[in-house]
Amino acid sequence: MALTLAEKIIQEHLVHDACKETVCVRGTPIERGAHIAVRIDQTLTQDATGTMAYLQFETIGIPRVRTELSVSYVDHNTLQTDFKNMDDHRYLQSIAAKYGLWFSRPGNGICHQVHLERFGVPGKTLLGSDSHTPTGGGISMMAIGAGGLDVAVAMGGGAFHLAMPKIYGVRLTGALRKGVSAKDIILELLSRETVKGGVGAVYEYFGSGVASLTVPQRATVTNMGAELGATFSIFPSDETTRAFLDVMGRGDVWSEQKADEGAAYDKVIEIDLSSLTARAACPHSPDAVQPVSVLAGTPVTQVCIGSCTNSSLDDLAAAAAIVRGKHIAPNVEAGIAPGSRAVLLMAEKAGILGDLIRAGFRILESACGPCIGMGFAPNSQGVSLRTFNRNFKGRSGTADAGVYLVSPETAAASAVAGVITDPSSCAYEDACWTAQGRVSLLSGNDARLSLSDITATAKDDGMLIAPLSEAEAARIEIIRGPNIKPCPSAAALGETLSAPVLLKAGDNITTDDIMPAGTKVLPFRSNIPEIAKFTFERIDADFYKKAEQAGFSGCVVIGGENYGQGSSREHAALGPMYLGVRAVIAKSFARIHKANLINFGILPVAFADGGAYDCIAEQDVIEITNIQQALESGCDFVLRRIRGSDVYEFTGSNTLDVRSRAILRAGGLAAYTRHGGQ
Question: Average pLDDT in the 84-99 region?
Fold first, then answer.
């Protein structure tokens, strides 16, 4: 039978022995929702999640990673205001040397941009402890974000388990017009599908319009598939992919990857690229999308171009073309954060960097920086236009700022005008914005940058440290700073649970709401007792105090739809687990966060009847009376809400697969793995 590209890559990587309950016949579509296990070829971690992932990996007790390639990146916590961040960097470097990983040093760039340039391979699987790992789909990888413990297991040779996703086809036709970019494609899709529309699904792009998009443009689209809640997103690997890899000096890893003729999708979404206009996601959600023309004239106080979504040479070239010979408005502060050291060097050679500096842009470090609230925060009540992927309230570091997600073109035009401006209304050189112009820039047809120049610059790996030999690695001692603490373990669940509701939250609660990022919190990422003090701080500033008064001995959290959307950070499960959260009962869960709850022994229960949510308040007591029975048999959970003498009985849907139930019975993934679980 004809298969989609996603189905073909999944089938090529199925680990049948690790998933005995699902029958998979090669060449035949796998039943949607079936439990599958896939072999992981590559892994990546970043420093905000990597320290905990490697602390967990150490407990597995194997001498060397068992993947084809694993990379440890430092890109999040590069702001070193005291010893904590650099101590973690030294720990990560020593871990990489000890266990056979590549190490990307601070300043080398954002993990997803560097991986695209230096390590990504079409048709391979990539598991990363960062929710934007699906960026790799831009070069036709099955690239999935996950919690650090799942990545640690994959590095140890274990399969990655998931429910077989639905495959949504996105047919692209036409070509983008002037002033419209790849960011506008994914914002258009978000406006249609919402931040929960892709939960349990893959977005696979096909159609005649694909050929008009460069690899960096494709990667922008797949990157923000995470905001749809998608498992991953993917483009075919074609001649454009080959050209990109050739320029990066890695043409030998190219292979064609495409869907079979006549492949069937669970649904097909049509996007005519030529009909798109510039878009912006308004505060405070990536799917709150409006045409830029509607927002035009809104005063702007800050502009930032960067993040793993829009920090390629393409993106900087597009911005430079608009601001060349101009200057940013007096009321605007503007910055750029090149996605990698290679991008920074290439932009300097091409004259792009000089154009941006002369226009008044500040040059920020090649790192995540402002995207995670790590510097360059907006002014109070400011309006900040960012080419990033998330605009959750407070994520920028300024609680009352209004953050808009826009393309580099819209950001640059608005920086010059001082108000939100549609870039299609601006006069600038076509050569740097059209897909053809960008290809020519990367093909040696632009007089300022030859193919040999860009290839030589892109291959500068001076900030990458290759794995040591096994003999050399055996002599390495792991470096541990005083802020690095062991990962706490979860307590096994009993048959019954009776615990107070300490928090009731609404829909679309993010992992930033559960465990914030930023300069105050992230330095404690390898110290769970300390970082746990910030748990739910943005929703209830007294949550830690309430958990402390309850003796950290057991409590329940209630959530609405899409609970746990956003970052893959497992600290959003570790912090609650440390404070005694034993169960989260929600209308629905985001994929990665649900997996992280399971991994750390917190029971995720879905309301069978949405009306039950309305009948529960904080300080009610929740009783679950058949936990082990439900985990063993798969039956639904029996619950009671107790408020004095008032008792309300309701049912919780058991949406857990066989392996997830076994993990919870064992007390979490670490205990499950130690006892021989696959």
Answer: 97
Q: Are 565 and 510 in contact (CB under 8 A)?
A: yes
Helix (H, G, I), strand (E, B) or coil at 645: coil
Please state, in angstroms and rounded to a whole number, the distance separating the CA atoms of residues 410 and 88: 37
CA-closest candidate to residue 213, choices 139, 275, 265: 139
Q: Which two tokens stand for residue 271?
A: 């996007």
Question: pLDDT at residue 435 above 80?
Answer: no
Instruction: Measure the CA–CA gap between 132 and 145, rounded to whole angstroms.
Output: 6
Residues 6+ apart with CB under 8 A from 515: 521, 531, 534, 535, 569, 571, 572, 575
* Contact between residue 557 and residue 496 where contact means Cβ atoms under 8 Å apart: no
Structure tokens of 546?
């309430």
Q: Residue 334 is encoded by which pair of tokens?
A: 């503007």
Cis amide bond preceding 284, omega within 30: yes
Rounded CA separation 667/77 (Å): 31
Q: How confident is the model at residue 492 (pLDDT cuts 50, 70, 90)?
A: confident
Q: Minimal CA–CA distance to 30: which of 141, 162, 139? A: 162
Q: What is d(CA 668, CA 400) in angstroms, rounded to the nearest whole number?
A: 38
> Is-contact 146 592, C-beta < 8 A?
yes
Q: For residue 502, give both structure tokens.
A: 């300490």
Please work out, in degrees rounded to the nearest 5, the angle formed at the alpha carbon of residue 200 by the alpha carbons of 71 and 119.
20
Identify the H or E element spanning 53: helix 47-60
> In this structure, are residues 123 and 241 in contact, taking their beta carbons and an 8 Å threshold?
no
Inter-residue contact 6 to 236 (CB < 8 Å): no
DSSP assignment of 532-591 equals: GGGTTTTT-TTHHHHHHHTTTS-EEEEE-TTBTBS---THHHHHHHHTTEEEEEES-B-H
Q: Which two tokens stand for residue 111?
A: 């993990």
* DSSP string computed for 356-371: HHHHT-EE--SSSGGG
- DSSP E strand stretches across 289-423: 289-291, 302-305, 333-336, 362-363, 383-386, 402-405
Residue-wise pLDDT for 499-532, tens only, equals 999 999 999 999 999 999 888 898 999 999 999 9
Tell me the residue type at 107. Answer: G
Strand ranges inside 263-382, DSSP E: 267-272, 279-281, 289-291, 302-305, 333-336, 362-363
Interatomic CA distance for residues 613 and 617, integer angstroms: 9
Nearest CA to 490 out of 357, 674, 347 is that of 674
Q: How many CA atoms lie within 13 A of 167 on its CB side?
A: 24
Instruction: Give me the residue label for tokens 């939960």.
Output: 199
Q: What is the pLDDT of residue 59?
A: 87
Contacts of residue 621, defined as CB under 8 A and 6 or more positions apart, other chains included, come to 498, 499, 500, 501, 641, 642, 643
**DSSP bridge pairs for 176:** none
Is beta strand 35-38 parallel, antiparallel or unpaired with respect to 267-272?
unpaired
